[in-house]
Amino acid sequence: MMDQLVWCGRIRNGISLAAPNESLASAYLKKAEEALETMQTITAHDWRITTAYYAMYFSLYAVLTRTGIRCENHSCTILLMERLLSDQFTPAEAALVEKARGARVDAQYYVSREIPDLFCDELIRAAPRFLVKCTGIVDGMSEKTIRVLRERLTEALREDG
Predict the structure, then answer these.
(1) Tens digit of pLDDT for each residue in 51-73?
(2) With b meaning 16 or more CB within 10 Å and e meaning fewer, what string describes 106-121?
């Protein structure tokens, strides 16, 4: 059976290596801040969930961009968080981002699926903390950490690895 990361490395717009980019990482952190600002100004439940998710997603993507990892597939991005960035993020944080992704899909595409208010509230509280955490990771990332993460990913993407 093919590993999920290997699969993510093979699909169109899946996982690939690029040059580590500090300024692009900062731009994604700014996008995350803008999503949070939007989240604070709107009252519609569905859009609050969507903006909270994107604040978290852009925060996570900033960490990957700083490392020089590209991935346009949201599920694969979260898989990278779980598998590659396990020193930076807890399993609970990865589970929250995955649950937020599912809630965002439900909120945007299905009128009949209700997202519990309790989860919506949890997400709205978690999103700003997640941005702060990711900003710290981006700012504190050493060249050695970047090199190690890129080597680990290269190894993980090998089918026989």
Answers:
(1) 999 999 999 999 999 999 999 99
(2) bbeeeeeeebeeeebe
Give residue 12's identity as a one-letter amino acid code.
R
CA 56 to CA 53: how far, in whole Å?
Answer: 5
**Are the CB atoms for 123 and 53 separated by under 8 Å?**
yes
Parallel, antiparallel or unpaired: strands 69-70 and 16-17 = antiparallel
Structure tokens at 45: 């439940």
Express each pLDDT in 25-42 by its tens digit. 999 999 999 999 999 999
Element (H, E) at 25: helix 22-41
Global confidence as pTM? 0.93
DSSP secondary structure letters along 101-145: HHHHHHHHH-SS-PPPHHHHHHHHHHHHHHHHHHHHHHHH--HHH
Domains of the chain by residue range: 4-157
- Is the CATH number 3.30.460.80 carried by domain 4-157? no
Burial 124-145 (b: 16+ CB within 10 A, else e): bebbbebbebbbebbeebeeee
Report the alpha-carbon distance of residue 81 to residue 130 in Å, rounded: 13
Give phi and psi for 16, each to the nearest 5: -150, 160
